[in-house]
Amino acid sequence: MNPNVKRVEYAVRGPIVQRAVQIEKELKEGVKKPFTEVIKANIGDAHAMGQKPITFLRQVLALCSYPELLEDNKFPEDAKKRAQRILDSCGGHSIGAYSASQGIECIRQDVARYIERRDSGIPSSPDNIYLSTGASDAIVTMLKLLVCGEGRSRTGVMISIPQYPLYSAALADLGAVQISYYLDEDKCWSLDVAELRRALNAARQHCNPRVLCIINPGNPTGQVQSRQCIEDVIRFAKEEHLFLMADEVYQDNVYAEGCKFHSFKKVLFEMGPEYSSTVEMASFHSTSKCYMGECGFRGGYMEVINMDPEVKAQLTKLVSVRLCPPVPGQALLDLVVNPPQPDEPSYTTFIKERTAVLAALAEKARLTEEIFNTVPGITCNPVQGAMYTFPRITLPQKAIDKAKEEGQVPDMYYCMRLLEEEGICLVPGSGFGQREGTFHFRMTILPPIEKLKVVLQKIREFHLRFTQEFS
Amino acid sequence: MNPNVKRVEYAVRGPIVQRAVQIEKELKEGVKKPFTEVIKANIGDAHAMGQKPITFLRQVLALCSYPELLEDNKFPEDAKKRAQRILDSCGGHSIGAYSASQGIECIRQDVARYIERRDSGIPSSPDNIYLSTGASDAIVTMLKLLVCGEGRSRTGVMISIPQYPLYSAALADLGAVQISYYLDEDKCWSLDVAELRRALNAARQHCNPRVLCIINPGNPTGQVQSRQCIEDVIRFAKEEHLFLMADEVYQDNVYAEGCKFHSFKKVLFEMGPEYSSTVEMASFHSTSKCYMGECGFRGGYMEVINMDPEVKAQLTKLVSVRLCPPVPGQALLDLVVNPPQPDEPSYTTFIKERTAVLAALAEKARLTEEIFNTVPGITCNPVQGAMYTFPRITLPQKAIDKAKEEGQVPDMYYCMRLLEEEGICLVPGSGFGQREGTFHFRMTILPPIEKLKVVLQKIREFHLRFTQEFS
Ligand SMILES: Cc1ncc(COP(=O)(O)O)c(C=O)c1O
Ligand SMILES: Cc1ncc(COP(=O)(O)O)c(C=O)c1O
Fold it and tell me: What percent of chain A has pLDDT over 70?
């Protein structure tokens, strides 16, 4: 067996989630528990938490799936037009045909135009767009492309701690060197270039650092980076000849007053040609997050910038081996980057639905921070964006000892107890990485507001009880 | 850059296909050519070649995409029932939710029941089923799991020559050792255990052979293996402690009189417990082929048999990193393994459509063999199954010399000329591997019958002209 596979860890779907699934089965079989349902706040899966799909997206997908419906006057004209355009760009006018490996050309054009609008007109070329099977696929592919060397010249990849564990898992799988840089919890999980430099210099002793990964807005930490910070990071990447991987899947998920999403690409280009024509970069987006939450379709794209044409040719070849990303996911992405316009019949409903989703998320972000910060022993940064909170928990020494006795890391012990006693499934902070001696958990803010209140209340009660038990 | 990525080659989407896409653009722009359209017979993409989707499948997918249609009395009851069942097994009743990484449980149950029916009752467990993003994904994942070691202890993987280039590409990417065994063209591309043994013994000098891959029915060669041959292969795998990977994506595509699909699993179990409880195996299936031809949905599954529970746990962890296969593809797979039953309203149409597709393929298989074998310098084995023919072409020495002058392998030169002169896109045999000094091309039998006749006729004329030119 591949030893790198053994080293892979992926906490978001780890032992605690497996136990949650088991408990759900036990509940179904009538086993008595102190709760009647398991609430899974472990994963950023909006629909699973009750968020309704956006009508327009699903109408077009139904039309693409079963084009006979194009004759049906129940569907709005703009939905039909979009569906027809997608079908016309598919082999044999069917979403059942393989597409080009890089993705359907007219969808890549739409993506490029979307990026241009987002970035105030900075040009984007469809040739630099690669559609993907969710952002996960694109991230793993890009890492695979960049990693090489052996021993001390093995590629080092800088990732934040805490991080989204796809990164550490992919690096383990590739046998690349993970270089951890720490986000500053005391400054709302911000990123500091001095810390990047510290991590880089330390890593130079034992590997060849070549790649810097950033998640903005942040998972699991929910921060939104300032424009200044992004500039600093880009300057650092240029100085140190690092390839920038900007994970921007939460680009629409910004809630906090005064926060704004700045794409790495836009900032890069605004810094002038010295930067915009030299820094190599890839940016990732997905249909899974934002207001759509369409995780199951596995849609996404990456844009590559300043990539050496030879490397790009290799990338194109590499993605061809798996033939193509799922076409329904590509179609969905097309609608996301090319939504109804003000003069189209679906516009009003679309905007209403999108606004409602984002407003509810903003409200839940606020509520989560507020309630957690009333609990002694829990401290929680503002959820500026994304879909998660990563509060710090103070655990009594006796609880830490008890966990060790049970052979578990302390926050895993805490989360397991919470699951068994309250039916709430969170992911321990250790699954994302945290400073030695600190403990956290990650919770999504996705449950419907009334359920979220219950969840927060239950965690509160559990935390007090747990703290008491071990005092 | 990753040097393994550089070594990857994937002919099915290689330079000839890129040139075909270019020519299509030129045609659109009004550039004059000796033909008016490019016919792409390079890839097994049924819908792109005009095959119509199966109505039932698409109705259910439309219902799953836009559940408001469940209220619509235009849809048959069985389609609604299937859609409702799939939705009920999705988080939040939405195909937009992530599924379990191994795939939706009720669909894995349906797959297991399908396998049991196919294999005359030999038991199958949903725990051994992993849904995937097309068969490509499952094959790559399984290879990744199995490959390890360095230098002379590096894992060797046996693949047929000619092969489907996903295999050689994945092995290059993983840095595994490819062990080539040759199919016997003179015996209708059959597989001979003596040749397996020769290849294995030779490979033992420089690597650690651990895996044996078989494609049945064969791509690119179109053969269907006899039950006897499969037994021999299984016996060989047991003796040599090889993990068997059975690529059975064409299991419904069997046309020739006297040929029948035998699943490796069924034969394994019929050989008795000595085999059925020891030989480790994985079998792959896909929604892309058979009568469905739904390539764009990227649906598929693998069944693992006798896999060490620890390795299986690693596999489960590994697939969790990319979260889940596309849910629309999973839904589609569910319909394939659980199609309309005789007492259901969609049955008649479903059977009619399925039969028509398979009958047309059988007719095209026959026709292809027949016409090619009338051309002096082309010899073609019967297309017993799958969707391809891999005829051998005799090239004049002067043509071979000319190709070398142009820096091309001779069959690439041949296929490029065919593309430029007739607008027909085939894949040169060198992309799949062939015995030194022999030349082939692969052509799909998918074009509609009238178009296929034209294609065959054009290839005939081209071949005669080409041969003449270089005589
Ligand atoms: C930061 C980040 N990147 C990438 C992904 C992958 O998402 P997907 O593969 O569904 O697009 C996620 C999913 O949660 C994420 O949080
Ligand atoms: C033998 C064989 N295996 C696997 C595949 C992969 O198919 P998919 O990934 O579309 O399921 C193909 C596609 O042509 C094939 O011919």
Answer: 99
